[in-house]
Each structure stands twice: as C-alpha cells, then as structure tokens.
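hey can u check if this looks right to u? its 303 residues, i copy pasted from the old doc so theres a chance i mangled smth
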Amino acid sequence: MKYRWVVIVAAVCSTAQMPPVSDQARAALDGALGAKGVYVSEESAYRFLFPRADVSVRIGAQRLSPEQAPASWATFAPSKRREAMVSAELVVLDDEVNPTISVALKSGLEVTGLGPVLLSSQPTLLALNVSAEGSYSSLGAAVRKVLDEVRRIRADKRGASETPKPGTTPTKNAIDAAPLNAILSMRGAAPDGIYRASIGRIGLLNGTPVGREMGMSTRLTISGTSQQALLDADLIATDDELQRVLSAITTRNLNISAIRNHFVGDHPQAFFVRFWGQGTASDLARALRYVLDVQTGAARSGK
C-alpha cells in the first residue's frame, strides 16, 4: 500500500509537468473528428463527447432522451513514449461490436474492454474501450474511422428493416444540482437538467501519468426529474476496494451491469464497476454517497 501511494504521488507531480496540447493539435483533432473538443489544461487533456442521438433507448416502458442516454467519448493527451495518446469509450449496439472492433484494430487502436452499459435496456448498449499511442493526427483519424463505421451500420439498418420500438415520451430532464451536491459533497452541474459529476484519480498508463479526463475516474449522471430519476455510474476501484464496493452497491439495491478493466498497462490496476438505478434523485444520491463512503472507509458495508 505504501508503494502504491508513492507511485500515485509521483504521477501527480509528473502530471503537472506534462506539455500542453497545442492549438494546432487541437484544431487538427477538431477537423479530423468533425466536432469541437473541450480542453482541460490542468491535465493537458482534450476531450470529445459523442451522444448516440441516432438510437432510441428504452428501459422498460420509459424511453430515454438523447441527453439521458449514455454517450461515447474520446480524450487525447501527450504521451511519455510518443507524441500523443488517446483513451476512448464508445457506446455501441450489439450488431456494431464486431465490425467496430475490426475497424479499431485495423486503424491501430488497442481494444481494452467491452461490457454492457445498462441492464434491461432496449436495444442493448455496450461500452467498448480503446486506447493507443502515436501522433495526434493518426489517433484522430483512427477514432474517426471507428465512429464512421458505427454511423455506416446504423444508416444501413435504417435503410433496411430497422423500425423504432414504441415507448413512453422521454421524461423531461429537470434535475437541480444543489441538493445533490449537498448529499454527495461534490461540485456537479446540471446546465441541461442532467446532473453530471466525476471524481478523478491519478495513475500510470504505460509509464505516462493519466487522470480524470483520460478516463481514470468515477463518473456519474442523474437524469430525469427529482421524483423520477435515472442514475448511471461507472466507478473506479482498486483491487483492495473492489469487493466492498460491490457489496455496498448491492446493499442499496442498485443494479451492477459490468465489472471490467478499461486499460492495459495501468498501475495500480484499475477496475471499473458500471451500475445504475431508478428512483427519486435524492434517494439515488444517498445510495451513491453510501457506496463512495464504503469505498473510502468512511462507512461499513451493510450498515
């Protein structure tokens, strides 16, 4: 445990010394991906978000709005070994998995994880994790090829026999961040009516320090309304935290949908637990706070 903290402290110091992503590199990535990224200067990370607005997602009879549904993301940052590195999580449907993996591998990306996002969702959503090192231009082009493959498959399906599934009108997103921040002791925000927050960690990925924006983090969203809300969380845990985190999640009747690694070559090894729940926004926040307290040792599972 002492050695682990030494590694983390060293990584934190190294993160502050990472070179920035230049304006030219950011502009090139914007052009390659056809989107505008968000630059996080303290981590030298340039992050893109890609909502799956092309898919109508339901949980039971409730249809999610595009803002509520999980989104794909990709983050680019400097690398110790090459010019740049990318970490991405792509939300895909089951018929997109194998073609997408094939394109990712042919494009020079490493596939590091695959697992369901939400249990009982229709259609089934899966999170595909990829990473790589290289130049900003080559990495941006590689991610764009994967995104284009997903779009091609959906366009082909719409042109064939794919028909939308019935469902209720999506719940309007009207989450107030203030009471949830009070429960969670966080500084999340809900500018679009969807509460979003994250808790970053610092680790090493193939010798390069990485943090929150590269995916080394717990991320959560609470969407819907105060009385009818949906929690979607992806929690990062070390090996010695994993079992008590799983126990805490099940104790609060939240639904675990995946337990997996997002990275290859990370230290310390990070496990990601994807879970979700439905209920009032405050009840979901209290359940999540309990899980986080158990993880840090501030509470005991089962209490």
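The first helix runs from residue 2 to 15.
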